[in-house]
Amino acid sequence: MTNKQIKTIGELKKSGYASRSIKQEMRSNLEVKLKKGIPIFEKIIGFEQTVLPQLERAILSGHNINFLGLRGQAKTRMARQMVELLDEYMPIISGSEINDDPLKPISFKAKQLIEEHGDETRIDWVHRSERYSEKLATPDVNIADLIGDIDPIKAANLRLSYADEGVIHFGLIPRSNRGIFVFNELPDLQPRIQVALFNILQEGDIQIRGFKFRLPLDVQFIFTANPEDYTNRGSIITPLKDRIQSQIFTHYPTSIKIGRAITKQEVRLSESQIKSIKVPELIEKLIEQIAVEARSNEYVDEKSGVSARLPISAYETVVSAVERRMLLNGEKNGTARISDLQAAIPAIVGKIEMVYEGEQEGAVNVAQKLISSAIRTLAPQYFSDFDRLRDKQHPEIRNKYMSIMSWFEQGHELDLLNDASEKDFVAGLEDIKDLSKVIKSSKTTTNDSQHLMMEYLLHVLAEYSMLDKKMLETSFKFQDFFSSIMPEE
């Protein structure tokens, strides 16, 4: 007889079913997966040697857990995936409001049903996906939401006295009995509401409108929070923090490689975009570097954090910029360019929280500075001699790029239109004397196209003040640096 064929408590007893707490259940299923080498958390990249081992140890210890980290660090995603550590189906007493264990009922209603029907009491089977509850902590959350309250309509319909336990309407936490309850952004919960969690976490008794009774609730609590100094909205009060046995710190990607893997996993592109648009490795690295620059930029609030959603949104916007250009020029295929990073500015400004100086600078200007910083930071990876560019002991390095600058010194300019066709884009770059020659001689280990590297070199030279770059409404204009600042006679 399979689980779902068992319909009564009597049949459940005969099957050999043994009750166990949710923490024992998760621990047991985790042990099986670890022994078999089965991945426990899917699509969680970069935490394999840091966060996940701590989380596994906390589960084996039977702890309630608090994920502490800045926004966009997969805290909620990990919490949701913990459902996979539950048994596929769980028996409850049919009609129970709080998922009563048929062999260990705790509610007044469940006990009454068993007293009336004995082993013939009906049971239902609940899928593990239904054993997950999530609540965002907001200032308007109250005790009734979490614990419960007297239901006057229920009392009237059933003609019950307010002294009867049957008038109680249970809140979210009791209804999450034998399941996982996730409280997001815990510091935002008012301190007086946090106090109400003390006994539930430690002793298991609750009080609802004068009804004082023990409900040994069986709940796996998962909390998420930003660091306490993130905002002044609130914090986790010390006695509550003391009752949460494991506090696990999350973090942002520790390398560009990990960041790229996360971004490529999370971006949502249409089938036509995937087939017709190429995003070179350099562009992917620059997009990730923008986020890295933002996390340490003086204009961006470091305590607020810069979510992994920034590079994801930026990547999607860059792809859309290429798609738009293809549609305008009637092209079937397209490749992202350095200039396409400007299209990501709307995605960047919505993902950063600035300090006062940043507000004064302006969101768009700060975003442009982040793009420029990313271009400059990655330059030595592609042009290994750039970090010695101003070293007087190596004049040959500067001379290497002099032929390019000489072309501009002769009065030439390059106006790279953002919506230029591939043909016009290539032609404009090929006009610059020795630009392709320098790229070939740089011996950069990259699979990116030569013309993308040619465009990148121009932007890098501008960042090192060897060329002048002006960002116009529809293009980037490159010209000689000194002629741009010296008035014509």
What is the typical, i.e. mean, pLDDT?
87
Radius of gyration: 31 Å
Widest beta sheet: strand line-up? 4-7-10-1-11
Number of strands: 16
Superfamily (CATH H level) name of the largest domain: P-loop containing nucleotide triphosphate hydrolases
* Tertiary shape: elongated
Largest sheet: 5 strands, parallel
CATH architecture of the largest domain: 3-Layer(aba) Sandwich
The class by helix and strand makeup works out as: alpha/beta
CATH topology group of the largest domain: Rossmann fold
CATH classification, class level of the largest domain: Alpha Beta
Number of domains: 3
The total count of helices amounts to 23
Uncertain segments of ≥5 residues (pLDDT<50)?
none
Relative helix content: 40-55%
β-strand percent reads 5-15%
What's the end-to-end separation, in Å?
Answer: 97 Å
Secondary structure layout:
Layout: H1 9-14, H2 22-36, H3 51-60, E1 65-68, H4 75-81, E2 89-93, H5 108-117, E3 123-127, E4 132-136, H6 143-146, E5 148-150, H7 152-158, E6 168-170, H8 172-175, E7 179-184, H9 191-195, H10 198-202, E8 205-208, E9 211-214, E10 219-225, H11 238-243, E11 246-249, H12 256-266, H13 271-276, E12 277-278, H14 281-296, H15 309-329, E13 334-335, H16 345-349, H17 356-361, H18 363-382, H19 395-409, E14 414-417, H20 422-430, H21 435-442, H22 450-463, E15 468-471, E16 475-479, H23 481-485
Parallel strand pairs: 1-10, 1-11, 4-7, 7-10, 12-13
Antiparallel strand pairs: 2-3, 5-6, 8-9, 14-16, 15-16
